[in-house]
Structure to design on (556 residues):
């Protein structure tokens, strides 16, 4: 579904991503695992089309179409979207307004879709529908609303950047259920995470370190490698040998 | 039903009001077209001592001691022709322990050079509460010249809230001047929102003096400007009382060749007082735009969503 070919990104003269190749399989839950600072979010922003993260070299193909030069909005219209690690806040915009944006004017069963989305992220429909998506929501609540908005969109490819940030450990299962539900509804998912508990629930995994993809494979192997090699290494000397 | 009355009801509806407010004596109200009082209805404990003048009205609105009015008191001030002067010189006395909330619609739907002046002295007694919300509509042509001035005094434990909104149509030229003094344990909140277009000019000059101990103040200003509109926000809070707290919060969003300036002024003359401010001026926050664009909105649509939210 998404092919990343030799993407490099530089910021302030420093290489953040180097020659990244990545293949996202249609209909699967893919994960991108890495420590903080490995380049995970940068890759998410590049895939989504943020102008300041435009690649200096390489290409991106989405469903066979070259999207390298398309902007954020154009990519979203093709069915690509991103749940932000730290979601923006909007004064005066209610949860209902925010979730409705993803529906793009779809009126049929819109309320039902919103209700379902909020239930999936364990937010009470009646209590939250008219709440403002502003400072009055806690970080965890805002994050849940962000994830719910991805669900209402029914995207072809949902990139979820650290979907558990700000959400308590006990709610991890809710996040995993949401990811699986997205897949059941026909979305392809790319989960960006530094937690092996999430990566291990995915269909495939890639490991990123110092802006390079260093391993691709099944999640069990990748998370084992991550636990044994990456965490102790703290990305000082990336190990490129075979998985034990 | 006479023509003036019908015209005003239509204008009132156009500015977001419901006509039943002025057709039923159930709701306390005052309906003014230019300098003619078309309808007024008081309620027990609320005195409307208002007289017509050559250019508007003059008088006093008084909420008697201890009276708590559950319904909003509706005021509608309108000028229907393209040109005209309307002066509202009304003082408000909210006696000790009284609670009253006013909802005012000022509508000048055909204005090219309507001038609307409002001057009010407001006195809140001890433990009294007053909210004054004002919604303006100045039509789509050139807007109006609007100068609301409030000088309010909030006594011990009193609560005063003033809201001003002009979020659709043209503004014309708007100059708000609010000055509030707050005594012990009192509260003052001033919220003003305006959306300027074309060559509109928006100016907010607001100041809260926190004189009393444990008094509280908030000035919140939201201005969106596009085309060649201008915005100037001067928000000041002076902390004088022991343990008083004040905050100034100003956001101005600009597009095109619009021009915005903000001057938050915070001052304390008491080492137990604290006054803070935050001001953001410029284009719409990038993170907000990126988020909305990642949901498929164009940049133009995303800016519109952010501005509409801010203006609510």
């Amino acid at each position: 579904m998404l092919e990343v070919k030799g993407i490099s990104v530089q910021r302030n003269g420093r290489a953040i991503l180097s020659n990244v190749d990545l293949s996202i399989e249609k209909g699967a839950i893919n994960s991108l695992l890495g420590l903080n600072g490995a380049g995970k979010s940068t890759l998410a922003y590049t895939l989504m089309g943020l102008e300041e993260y435009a690649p200096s070299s390489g290409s991106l193909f989405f469903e066979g179409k070259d999207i390298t030069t398309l902007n954020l909005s154009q990519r979203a219209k093709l069915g690509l979207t991103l749940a932000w690690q730290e979601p923006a806040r909007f004064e005066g915009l209610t949860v209902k307004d925010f979730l409705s944006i993803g529906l793009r004017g779809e009126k049929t069963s819109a309320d039902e879709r919103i209700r379902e989305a909020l239930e999936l992220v364990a937010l009470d429909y009646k209590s939250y529908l008219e709440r403002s998506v502003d400072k009055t929501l806690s970080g965890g609540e805002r994050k849940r609303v962000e994830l719910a908005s991805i669900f209402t969109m029914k995207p072809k490819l949902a990139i979820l950047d650290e979907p558990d940030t700000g959400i308590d450990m006990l709610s991890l299962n809710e996040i995993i259920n949401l990811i699986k539900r997205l897949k059941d509804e026909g979305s392809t998912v790319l989960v960006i995470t530094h937690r092996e508990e999430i990566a291990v629930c995915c269909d495939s995994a890639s490991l990123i370190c110092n802006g390079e993809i260093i391993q691709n494979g099944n999640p069990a192997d990748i998370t084992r490698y991550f636990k044994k090699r990456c965490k102790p290494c703290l990305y000082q000397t990336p190990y490129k040998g075979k998985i034990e | 039903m006479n023509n003036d009355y019908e015209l005003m009801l239509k204008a009132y509806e156009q500015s977001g009001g419901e006509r039943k407010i002025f057709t039923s004596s159930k709701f306390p109200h005052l309906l003014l077209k230019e300098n003619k009082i078309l309808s007024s209805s008081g309620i027990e404990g609320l005195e409307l001592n208002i007289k017509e003048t050559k250019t508007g009205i003059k008088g006093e609105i008084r909420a008697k001691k201890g009276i708590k009015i559950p319904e909003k008191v509706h005021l509608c001030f309108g000028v229907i022709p393209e040109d005209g002067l309307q002066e509202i010189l009304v003082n408000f006395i909210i006696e000790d322990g009284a609670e009253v909330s006013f909802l005012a619609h000022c509508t000048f739907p055909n204005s090219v050079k309507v001038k609307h002046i409002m001057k009010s002295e407001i006195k809140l007694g001890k433990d009294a509460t007053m909210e004054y919300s004002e919604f303006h509509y100045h039509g789509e042509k050139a807007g109006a010249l609007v100068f609301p001035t409030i000088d309010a005094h909030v006594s011990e434990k009193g609560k005063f809230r003033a809201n001003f909104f002009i979020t659709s149509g043209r503004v014309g030229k708007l100059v708000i001047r609010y000055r509030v003094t707050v005594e012990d344990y009192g509260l003052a909140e001033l919220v003003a929102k305006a959306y300027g277009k074309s060559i509109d000019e928006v100016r907010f000059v607001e100041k809260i003096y926190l004189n009393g101990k444990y008094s509280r103040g908030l000035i919140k200003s939201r201005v969106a400007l596009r085309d060649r509109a201008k915005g100037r926000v001067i928000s000041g809070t002076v902390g004088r009382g022991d343990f008083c707290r004040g905050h100034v919060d100003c956001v101005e969003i600009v597009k095109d060749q619009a021009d915005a300036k903000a001057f938050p002024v915070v001052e304390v003359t008491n080492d137990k007082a604290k006054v803070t401010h935050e001001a953001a001026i410029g284009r719409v926050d990038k993170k907000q735009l990126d988020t909305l664009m990642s949901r498929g909105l164009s940049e133009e649509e995303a800016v519109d969503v952010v501005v509409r939210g801010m203006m609510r």
User: Anything to note?
Assistant: The interface with chain A takes residues 222, 251, 285, 287-288, 290-299, 302, 305-306, 308-312 of chain B (CB under 8 Å).
